[in-house]
């Protein structure tokens, strides 16, 4: 992850930097251009590669690169950022039926990639994310593209500033690839967006990719990019990671800047990455935090991981249960000590606590954000233009007379604090680094059938199937890593979540580097 590297000098009469290079007076900024609308022109994304033999093979090689490999190749001069961007854009255009992106401006991306190549040619210092196109969830503010949060009233809303986490990525050479589709207002787990259309799972396009960050998950799984920026309130990174066969990190509360992101609750909302490898998550973490200390894979023989059969492993779909059991066998074989210990009683009530806090805070949080952003629309106007299912969900949970009372809210906040304390004691008592469990109880359901979840012949509410297991980390402000654990018999990914105490983000990433090898890779989608 070294960031300093000299470019190959070339002669140019228009050199801006006074060196023998081809910068031709170009700006070194890595921020995207100010273009608003996605281009619909037939830009040949393989122009830079078309003169080379085996063009298709080269393109496959490029889209399969991890973020670490791609940045290293661009930094070393083995790969032009423009060539890499064209390959990813070509892939995104080819798979646009997955509906992963809401806005995608190809010329904007290519211009930023060309700037990256000129920066390197000048020999200037280059960042950790040099030349890397990054899909960004469309609830995260960007100046260069609209930020709709997946809802009609904000379709053309252009924020005045980039979100704080996005500024950090731009400062390290990252490129805004486009804005990804999501569950409307981030208020759900499927990304079946009635306004902009459902996002489709690359492993089976008839199924959901998870949500609310489904577009970011689908883009990375489908090899449109190796790394995407998402956001998690109650599973919005972890659910797509599990359903799309990805690595995902919900960081400890406050680890990355949280400004400029449409909220549901200030108590839980956290930006974070989705990728196809833990090393890429670590790259993102280094870029977002500035912590460039080397990360060493954990020795699994020294690791104790907790499992809680009654609270986190019960009631699972049979295929999820099978994959989880087999994954635990592989972890034991790799030297991990699995410690069976049930959670404190208060921790098992996390989903109720979390839903009370979200339902109480969502309406005023969104209203205040819209006003502060100068969005030109009130919460009431936004909801009037929202889809019927979102209006219904808010009416059922977050609007009077069903909105939780102030007393219920304050009780939930107190429970949340006790949950943090009891969870920390549980970890210390059993000497564990993390808890392990499947983040969701089911594989990806079919689009349109999300409300009809059945496990072992019993109807299960969608929010239970999706958030029973993810709620503890949100309430206790934990660092959560999701890894692919295996596949169902019909080829759908199943994930495992590893929750560490708040502040142990680097420790859980170091653990993930080793767990990833122990669990083994899963096959990518056939597209």
Tell me what the structure shows.
By secondary structure, the chain is of the alpha+beta class. It has a domain at 1-132. It is 37% helix and 13% strand. It is built from 17 helices and 15 strands. It has helices at residues 55-63, 67-76, 81-94, 106-121, 164-171, 214-221, 238-244, 278-289, 309-312, 318-333, 350-373, 379-385, 388-397, 406-430, 462-467, 471-475, 505-519, and strands at residues 101-103, 133-137, 175-180, 192-193, 197-198, 227-232, 247-250, 270-275, 304-307, 337-340, 434-437, 454-455, 458-459, 479-487, 493-500. The strands form 4 sheets. It has an 8-stranded mixed β-sheet with strand order 6-8-7-14-15-11-9-10, with helices on both faces. The radius of gyration is 22 Å and the shape is globular. The protein starts with 54 loop residues before the first helix and ends in an 8-residue tail after the last helix. Residues 1-58 have low confidence and may be disordered.
**What is the residue-mean pLDDT, rounded to a whole number?**
91
| Inertia-based shape | globular
Cα distance spanning the termini: 31 Å
Low-confidence region ranges:
1-58
In percent, how much strand structure appears in the residues? 5-15%
Quantity of strands, as a count = 15
Q: Radius of gyration in whole Å, from Cα?
A: 22 Å
SS content category: alpha+beta
Helix content: 25-40%
Placed side by side, the strands forming the largest sheet appear as 6-8-7-14-15-11-9-10
Biggest pleated-sheet summary = 8 strands, mixed
Q: Treating each run of at least 4 consecutive H or I residues as one helix, how many helices?
A: 17
